[in-house]
Amino acid sequence: MTFISVCFAAMQNALVNVLVNDCIDFVMLKDGISANGVISSIKGFAQKCGNTVVTSGILAALGAAGYVAGAVGQQNEATMFTLNFLKFGAPCITGIVLILCVVFNPFQKYYGQIEEMKKNLKSIDEIEEEEKEEEKEKKGEDLL
User: Fold this and answer.
1) Which pLDDT score is estimated for 58?
2) CB 100 within 8 A of CB 12
3) What is the predicted pLDDT for the residue at 65?
4) Is 60 within 8 Å of 82 (Cβ atoms)?
């Protein structure tokens, strides 16, 4: 059971990053701008808010179940169920929700267009090379 919950919990950050990268690509496709920093900072802020809510939620759930600190081996049945659910059940449920988000990703219908856009993008080196050539041409015109 621990292995299954760890598998679901461990993949969650990777799946979130897949969805974030899809958002970045979609903004680039539709608006023609690179919003990596903005989207990543929003994701970071949302994770911090989520971590706060999760931590508070765990403490509230344990408090509601009657958890007694230091009562090793003497917790009531409701507390033990809550502890087991928070350790095994919750990661599996959130992992399944994330898998469904990736499987039914609304950006999937744009993947072909996004790939085409990426093929047409020039690398930074290509842009710098073109700028150098333009400067050389301008210098040559100025000499005439």
Assistant:
1) 92
2) no
3) 93
4) no
